[in-house]
Design goal:
Number of strands: 11
Largest sheet: 6 strands, mixed
Number of helices: 16
Order of helices and strands: HHEEHHEHEHEEEHEHEHEEHHHHHHH
Structural class: alpha/beta
Distance between the termini: 50 Å
Strand order of the largest sheet: 1-3-2-4-11-5
Shape: globular
Length: 366
């Protein structure tokens, strides 16, 4: 491919970018909920989360609340997501600098010629799960085949193709999920999507029963989650800014796991409906399932990614026919900003977080 071709955008992508910029401009005019560090002397950047403020965003809010971003020369605005938000559009439209994403969509972006790139992965396991009513005939995820399942539109480009290809789920099982558990609670033959860190508690409280929960990561869904994405242009032109944002965010997560109170205060300010019980439940699940502090993260640091893990994810999806086998999936990520080792990230954090070395940091954040 010659240099001219490298700099040309095909007609389809050009039209897509036009739509992206227009959609992003509209979103900018309507989106009101955002928090800023307010440090005008620092580099101003905006992070868009993937949902309204919840525990899954705790480390980012913690870095803002405790001044970690400011200590890295950053004036960070956190912009809440939601069911109608499209982080990729906002990112490509230049209205945000970083976005919470996922690898499945990142690889899909490569196929579509969208120049975004993943620079860190906070969750080593995707919290995505399917939830069912107690039923002796349902013992595994495969037993949900043929049953109505409430899923969001986002599932169509993330885990649903995986479920279809590996477990024989069909599109006629899908029911529109509007992030309200009532239809699922009423229909005892149904299932619904959720995050293992949130929806099971909500269903137990509203439905009065303890649901069956199937974490997709336990059934071969290898995706990272809560990834940090940015534009490839930013990585190329200002890698120092990207490194500082990644470092500060990771330090924020270490701090949040130790004492979440500062971050939770900001989360509750942004999302007054969330309860202390929900925040504590999310944090407990992070630890129970080692979503953030996996064995690899305990060595390389929170946010770690590996080329082998990305390869395994891609190849598993390509084998199922979700991606073309010749897709250059490596363009979806870079590991240059992560895998620095635990002590690297804790060096500028609270002394309480680094009182011991040589791989023993885990005990100080549990």
């Amino acid at each position: 491919m010659n240099s001219l071709t490298n700099h040309l955008i095909n007609r389809r992508t050009l039209l897509k970018y036009g739509s992206i910029c227009m959609s992003s401009l509209i979103a900018a005019c309507t989106q009101k909920s955002q928090l800023s560090g307010g440090n005008s002397g620092s580099d101003r950047v905006t992070l868009a989360t993937d949902w309204t403020a919840v525990a899954e965003h705790g480390g980012f809010y913690q870095a803002l609340a405790t001044g970690i971003y400011q200590n890295h020369g950053l004036d960070v605005t956190i912009r809440m997501g939601g069911p109608q938000a499209n982080g990729t559009q906002l990112l490509m439209g230049g209205l945000i600098d970083f976005n919470m994403g996922n690898p499945i969509d990142a690889i899909k972006a490569v196929a579509e010629g969208i120049p975004k790139i993943t620079v860190a992965a906070i969750f080593q396991k995707d919290p995505q799960c399917l939830i069912a009513h107690p039923n002796p005939d349902i013992k595994t995820l495969a037993d949900l085949k043929g049953k109505p399942i409430y899923v969001s539109s986002a599932a169509n480009v993330t885990y649903w193709p995986f479920l279809k290809a590996k477990y024989g789920f069909t599109d006629d099982q899908k029911r529109p999920y509007n992030f309200n558990p009532v239809p699922f609670i009423v229909d005892k033959n149904s299932a619904q999507q959720g995050y293992i860190t949130h929806e099971p508690l909500m269903i137990e409280k509203q439905g009065g029963f303890k649901p069956l929960v199937f974490l997709l990561a336990d059934y071969g869904y290898l995706s990272y989650a809560a990834t940090i994405e940015t534009r490839k242009e930013l990585v190329e032109k200002n890698p120092d800014l990207v490194q500082r944002f990644v470092d500060a965010s990771i330090q924020g997560w270490y701090s949040y796991l130790q004492n979440p109170d500062p971050g939770n205060s900001l989360i509750k300010k942004e999302n007054p409906k969330i309860t202390d019980e929900e925040l504590a439940y999310g944090l407990a699940k992070f630890k129970e399932y080692e979503m953030i502090l996996s064995s690899e993260a305990q060595k390389q640091g929170i946010g770690t990614m590996s080329k082998d893990r990305w390869k395994l994810l891609f190849e598993s999806m390509a084998e199922l026919g979700i991606y073309a086998r010749n897709l250059n999936y490596q363009d979806a990520f870079t590991v240059q900003f992560v895998n620095k080792g635990v002590d690297y990230y804790l060096a500028e954090s609270s002394p309480n977080l680094i009182s011991q070395k040589n791989g023993k940091n885990q005990q100080h954040i549990n």
